[in-house]
Amino acid sequence: MTPDGLFDDIAADLAPLGAVAGAMFGKRALKAHGKAFACLKGDHLAFKLGEGTPTHAEALALPQAELFDPSGNHRPFKDWVSVPHAHAAQWPNLAEAALNNLTS
Length: 104
Hints:
The chain is α+β, with helices and mostly antiparallel strands.
C-alpha cells in the first residue's frame, strides 16, 4: 500500500477516537483537539511520541528511523520520530500511541 493510502486507512481507523486529517507544514497530518500527532512527509510518517518514552525509543531504534526534521535544516523535533515506509506495518500502532500520548 502507498504511504498516502495507509495514511488514509489510519485516519479512518482513528476517527472514532477523535482524530481528523489536516495539515502541518503543508504536509498531510493527523490531529486531535487541534494538535498534530502524526505527519506524512514523502514516504515517512512521523509520530509525536514524547522524548524519553519507551515507544519513542522503540520507534527510533527501527532501521532508518530518525528524529523528525520537517524543515530539513538539521533542527529535529525531539518528541517526534520519522518512520520510513519500510516499517509501514508499525505505522498504525505508532499512530495510536501518538494519539494516546497527546490525549493523556
